[in-house]
Amino acid sequence: MVDKAEDQEVNDLRIEDKIPDQLNQETLLPDNPMRASMPILPDDEISGELKIGDPLQPKNEKSENLSSIFITKNELSSLWSKIDELEDRVISEMNNVNLGLTLITKLEEARKRIMSGSDQFDEVSGILAEIEYRLLFAKKVKIVSKQVGVPLLVYEFVWMLLLVFLIFWFNFNENQIITSIANDIFNINLLVNSLVWGGFGGVVGALYALWKHIAADQDFDPQFSLWYITNPILGISLGGFVYLVIQAGFLSLTAGASGGEVIQSAAVIYVFAWICGFKQNVIYEIVRRILDVFRVNTDEKSQI
Questions:
Q1: Where are the domains of the chain?
Q2: How far apart are CA 270 and CA 193, in angstroms?
Q3: How far apart are the first and last CA of the chain?
Q4: Which of 117, 129, 170, 265 lies deepest, with the highest CB count within 10 Å?
Q5: Mean pLDDT in runs of 10 for the chain (304 residues)?
Q6: Alpha carbon distances (Å) from 223 to 69, 151, 226, 289
């Protein structure tokens, strides 16, 4: 009996040695989708030794949201309160309708960004900083408009009264000393009137700029005060330059000589002088054309 039991054990061992080669895998591992015999992972995904009971971490795990760590609820609440405060200031302080509506729209956008999550904290802070700057700038414009804008307005009106006086004195005075002086080259009467009308253009240009930047756009900057001060003086200078340009024939505004006069229509000179005083960019184009007349082509070799 003992020999038979030993023979049976030997036969069982021989059968186990033949199992991997003879039996089907389905016989060893039954088809059960709820179980697995081993982790089916590539070799490069398993680094180190896994301890029993340690769960496998997913490959693409999201990084921790740092904004939720550094930005507290109190900071978000303070930001929300600042939005309400800025909205009240826009309604009470901003008298530019279009700009006020734009700022209110930005505040609504800031609220939506806060509701979307704490990761929008920096964007919302930037929007609020911009709105606060616009409010402070609008308040500054109101102050400097009274302190600087009003004196500049008085200054321009003084220039206008002076120029009106000069026009009447040069043209309607019985003792016309200057208008009686003329020669073959210059007509002093046309020159003086061109100077005055250029100054008029400069005064009107400065008044228009004051209205535009103080009343319309509300972006008056006192650093440009020197421009308002010098614009009438510059207009006078440009008026004289316009007369010389037309007298020299660089522009096609001259008429034929009639009765010893070089220029037949004085109104054309005065209008053009006023335009150049009002907008100096016109005279820059005239200067460019004059320079084109005297331009020398250096590419062509002179022949002796």
A1: 68-142, 145-293
A2: 7
A3: 139
A4: 170
A5: 52 49 45 43 44 42 53 84 93 88 93 85 91 93 93 96 89 57 65 93 96 90 94 94 82 51 70 91 80 62 45
A6: 46, 14, 7, 32
Neighbours of 159 (CB within 10 A): 22
- Report how far residue 69's alpha carbon sits from residue 109's, in angstroms, rounded to the nearest whole number: 24
A 10 A CB-CB count for 101 gives 12
- What is the Cα–Cα distance from 304 to 52, expressed in whole angstroms? 103
Instruction: Work out whether the CA dihedral 78, 82, 88, 91 comes out positive or negative.
Output: negative
Instruction: Report pTM.
Output: 0.65
pLDDT digits (tens, 9 = 90+) for 12-37: 545 445 444 444 444 444 444 444 44
- CA-derived radius of gyration, the chain: 45
Q: How many whole angstroms separate alpha carbon 262 and alpha carbon 248?
A: 10
- DSSP states along 256-291: --BTTBS-S-HHHHHHHHHHHHH-THHHHHHHHHHH
DSSP per-residue codes, 110-154: HHHHHHH-GGGHHHHHHHHHHHHHHHHHHHHHHHHIIIIIHHHHH
